[in-house]
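Lab meeting, item 3. Inverse folding demo.
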């Protein structure tokens, strides 16, 4: 387990408290920074994609490879394929305590597989196929999924350009909150959020840290 100097922990905590996108309180930030240091072996180390995926799988019950990679990408703000302690805390701020607008933006980034600012028919098909096949015994679901994509576009594509913009997605979710995770689960349940934030051992449940 990594040992963190109180002075270093306080300095990092105060810096994060000043960021408007951080919705955690002081004690929560301290706990999350301590978790990060325990997982990575030091406060100045970085968290790689593989270990982050293990956390998503074990602690947040995520199993979809595509979505886990996209969640990592949403956390990795500088796109260097590692998470710093700041990215860890700010990502979890949206993940665990984000307001509706925060979560809409986050989910859109997750579902925008190629990062071009749109959720295309092809991306919807890929996301839904992965999700539906896990819960279906039928061998060929392609036509059913294509029909579902068309239904979703009819519901969410407000400007009728056959793809979803951030504006389309936001408007649809504001009208029907269940559409927030329309293309697959990428947010933790309230029970899991509580468990992580208030875990007395200051470790991620299910890890060896």
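The presenter then showed the designed sequence:
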């Amino acid at each position: 387990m990594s040992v963190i100097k109180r002075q270093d922990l306080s300095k990092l905590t105060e810096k994060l408290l000043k960021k408007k996108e951080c919705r955690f309180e002081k004690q929560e930030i301290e706990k999350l920074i301590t978790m990060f240091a325990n997982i990575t072996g030091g406060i100045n180390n970085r968290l790689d994609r593989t270990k982050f995926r293990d956390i998503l799988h074990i602690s947040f019950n995520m199993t979809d490879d595509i979505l886990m990679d996209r969640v990592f990408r949403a956390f990795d703000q500088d796109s260097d394929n590692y998470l710093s302690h700041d990215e860890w805390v700010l990502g979890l701020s949206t993940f665990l305590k984000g307001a509706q607008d925060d979560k809409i933006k986050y989910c859109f980034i997750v579902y925008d597989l190629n990062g071009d600012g749109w959720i295309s028919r092809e991306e919807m098909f890929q996301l839904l196929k992965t999700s539906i096949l896990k819960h279906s015994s039928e061998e060929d679901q392609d036509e059913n999924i294509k029909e579902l994509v068309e239904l979703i576009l009819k519901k969410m594509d407000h400007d009728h350009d056959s793809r979803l913009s951030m504006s389309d997605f936001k408007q649809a979710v504001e009208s029907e909150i269940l559409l927030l995770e329309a293309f697959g689960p990428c947010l933790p349940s309230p029970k899991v959020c509580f468990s992580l934030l208030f875990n007395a051992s200051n470790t991620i449940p299910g890890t060896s840290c």
